[in-house]
Protein: TIGR02453 family protein
Amino acid sequence: MPFTPNAPQFLFENYTRNDKEWFKENKDIYEKEVLIPMREMIEYLTPLMNDIDPQIVCSPKKISRIYKDVRLMKDGMFFKKSIWFSLMRPKEPFVSKPEFFFWINPDNFGWGCGYYHIPTPVMENVRTMITDGDETAIKAIKTYDKQKVFNLDGEMYKRDRFPAQPDNYKNWLNRKNLAVVHESDDPDIFFSNDLKERVAADFKMIAPVYVLFAKAEDMETFKN
Structure:
């Protein structure tokens, strides 16, 4: 089933109320309007994820919990405003992995591929692959450059560390973190029956970027 306006409305009201009892009384709305469409999208994406990388784990358990971690409740808010899922290889404790992700919140929604926080050795592998002209890295950059769906995200260094490289390479090399992200607040897209098909098509198109990250990960594994 597609998302409806009830999904962002519920997330907004639940976050604003910050009331555990209200959430319990309205949990069926959360299940129907948020969780079921999320699960159906994961199910739809599973064959594609298996084609891109058989190690990627696709499961409803990859949907984030709506309750905040008690360690992060310094503001007194019990609930998260955003709900997302992250599809990735089995994750080691406290070690970020490249992932395909999708999120919704009361203000916007979006999807993408990349890191929450790329480990320094993996980032160095990515940079080396780019500067050495590795075919996987060049294909990823060419794929990104010719599309208009995703924006490259990640904090940039204040100083250009690779002045001799082409500008499109610098866009990757001078970042502390890497992800390609599509963000929207267009209700015609969000509430469309074709949303999951669009997400799948975009993930398939940008897959070479994931392949670059996965290869950089594997290089680090082989070192160890």
